[in-house]
Amino acid sequence: MHPPLTPRTLLFRTSLAAALLMATMLACALIGPQDVSLKAALSGHPAGGTPSPDYEILVRVRIPRVLLAAMVGAALASAGVIFQALLRNPLADPYILGVSSGAGLGAMLAVIGGLSWTLWGRSPIAVFAFAGALTTVWLVWGIGRITGKYQVTGLLLAGVVVNAFFSAMIMFLVSIAKGQQLYATIFWLMGNMTEEDFFVLWVGGGCILAGIVALFFLGPQLNVISVGYQDARSIGVPVERIELAAFAISAFITAVAVSLSGLIGFVGLIVPHAVRLLFGPDHRQLLPLSALAGAMFLVVADTVARMVVAPAQLPVGVVTAMIGGPFFLFLLIRHSKKVYWPT
Amino acid sequence: MTAAIQVNQVSFGYDPQRPVLNHIDISVRPGAFLAVAGPNGVGKSTLVQIMAGMLRPQSGVVLLEGRDLRTYGVAELARRIAVVRQEFVPAFGFSVFETVLMARTPYYGQWGFEGKEDRDRAAKALELTDTARFASRPLGSLSAGERQRVFIARALAQETPLLLLDEPTSFLDLKHQVAVYDLLKSIGQDTNATIVAVTHDINLASQYCDEALLLYPPRQSGDSPPASPFPPLYRIGPTAEVFAPPEIQRAFDVGVFSGAVGRERFIIPLGAMAKDANLSGRST
User: Fold this and answer.
1) Residues A223, A30 contacting (CB under 8 angstroms)
2) In the predicted model, what is the mean pLDDT of residues B40-45?
3) What ipTM does the predicted assembly reach?
4) In angstroms, what separates the C-alpha of B133 from chain A's closest C-alpha?
5) Which of A145, A157, A266, B165 could pair covalently with A320 via S-S, beta carbons 3.0-4.6 A apart?
6) Whether the predicted pLDDT of A49 surpasses 90
7) Structure confidence at residue A120 (pLDDT)
8) Cross-chain Cβ contact B92/A4 below 8 Å
9) What is the model's pLDDT at position A36?
10) Alpha carbon of B253: minimum distance to chain A alpha carbons (Å)
11) What total number of domains does chain A contain?
12) A29 assigned to some structural domain
């Protein structure tokens, strides 16, 4: 089994994972249909002169895209950890309470409505997706509160049903959409990365990073809550406050991620599990390591998505499921003897 | 003297038409070891949850050290009451040591890590409950009885003046049943902790507990109407009086045979088909 976590091991593992992430990001930024030389890019921006093509590709195209993948991956994996803990359910993922279908519906409405304005440089698709995600989660949470304050089953069922209902509405809108609109939304629904400008990256990344740091400090309480609501209370954890905070933060960072990249599946489900299988269930470690591993995973998956059918691109959601699934099954078979899930 | 915990005119029902607890009035003095017994569904666990502040009574109040339970904050309460609930299995694979250490969560430092003192207390609780051997094993891999001792250890690590246990020995073998009662009794004597334990083991409770609360089943609708509006459907007092054969017979509706060895008294339930059913004096 995993020995109890110490601050020293946590710091060591987190730093190592962060260094690995940096290396992965750099490597993936240099990979692409067009060869880029790091040396040429670094010396390619003389003061006052015209930048070299290498510099242009790296800074304007590759780096923003890699950064986006990293922050979306980190957000989805962290939110997955939190949803699994709060719902005490290993099958939970960031989308289970309606973020995905709410965002999807919002995005579809924006496309069908033919809106063309922008808000802080964001297309209406992203704005509508963000609003749809948060509204839906708020709705599901409210229903969950009514159906049972101390039971997560009501909340889960509300999420599943709202997801199904909104998915049906998305399908309806897809079936009446015109060809060009259809193409844009299908890619969005499958999860798709594009090059974002630095302002969007700063704001989105800042929100996600702040959210993950805040969640880290709820780690010990989340440990107790993941064991059981009543037990957590009698141990002295203010369950309602912690749950609400953790839930709101993770719904928010998921909504940010989804509005930037569409519905990328699988990251939020398998990354927390993979990290838990390898390092144990302690949330103080599970959260930061999942965030870093999720970032790494999505950076690699997006690089694959850019490469396999170059110069065309695959939606990254296809790649996450196709390389993530088998990898996860391998881990599961290899390590499942050490894990005791409830029977 | 202020009672460690006092239940005043408490009523509770999950369905308002069928109250489980009706106007319960009990008072537990500091340092007492109280056994709570009664037939299934009579409200023993409900009473424990009300005493722990997990359930709000529909009427009446609970006073902890003389102060209304509702005025305590969550953390404040956790420093005074520890609860061992009936058996369950958590969803994620925490180890035994991690589980027991969780009891110390409210005392963690600002970075969310336990101090040496917290680890020591958790280790001591493992030692006391004979669970240190499997400290590093995942909780889910233990047997029900082993797991039950781990939850007792976690409650002990909270180091509270009041311990509420809901059937703490239901899955334990004879050795560990006795060991748990020995442990509870010695903790009570060493720290003057107040202990309330729900149990079906009348005999074991009789050996260790000074006081007992026996809850009787509600009257059936066919019975004659009660004389007073709310006749007490329970009895509390010294164990020897409350767990006397006639009371047990009334509460559980079962024939009993009783006897004594030295100062210890024992009760054996006898059904109509038992080999020597006459012994209970209730054979048909």
Assistant:
1) no
2) 90
3) 0.83
4) 14
5) A266
6) no
7) 58
8) no
9) 78
10) 33
11) 1
12) no
- In terms of CATH, what superfamily is B1-80+160-246? P-loop containing nucleotide triphosphate hydrolases (3.40.50.300)
- Cβ(B154)–Cβ(B108) under 8 Å? no
**What pLDDT shows up at residue B225?**
52
Domain containing residue A266: 55-338
- Residue A152, in any domain of the structure: yes
CA A37 to chain CA centroid, nearest Å: 30
Average pLDDT for A318-325: 86
Nearest C-alpha of chain A: how many angstroms from B70? Answer: 14
E strand map for chain B: 5-12, 21-28, 33-37, 59-64, 67-68, 81-84, 162-166, 194-198, 211-215, 234-238, 255-261, 264-270
Tokens at residue B25, please? Answer: 């009035």
Residue ranges per structural domain of chain B: 1-80+160-246, 92-154, 254-284
- Alpha-carbon distance of A42 to A54, in angstroms, equals 9
A19 lies in a domain?
no
Residues of A in contact with B105 (CB under 8 A): 220-221, 223-224, 235-237
How sure is the predictor about A150, in pLDDT bands with cuts at 50, 70 and 90? low
Output the DSSP codes for A210-227.
Answer: HHHHHHHTTHHHHHHHHH
Which range scores top for mean pLDDT: A62-76, A140-154, B107-121?
A62-76
pLDDT bucket at A343, cuts 50 / 70 / 90? very low
Chain A residues with CB-CB distance to B99 below 8 A = 227
Tens digits of residue pLDDT in B222-254: 555 554 445 668 999 999 999 999 999 889 988
Best residue in A227, A241, A278, A336 for a mutation probing chain B (most B CBs within 10 Å): A227
B81 touching chain A per CB within 8 A = yes
Q: Kindly give, in sequence order, each residue whose CB lies less than 8 Å from that of residue A195, ignoring residues fewer than 6 positions away.
A: A60, A61, A64, A65, A68
pLDDT at A115: 66
pLDDT of A47 over the 70 cut: no
Contact B102 A227 (CB under 8 A): yes
Q: Does B109 touch chain A (CB under 8 A)?
A: no
A104 domain-assigned: yes
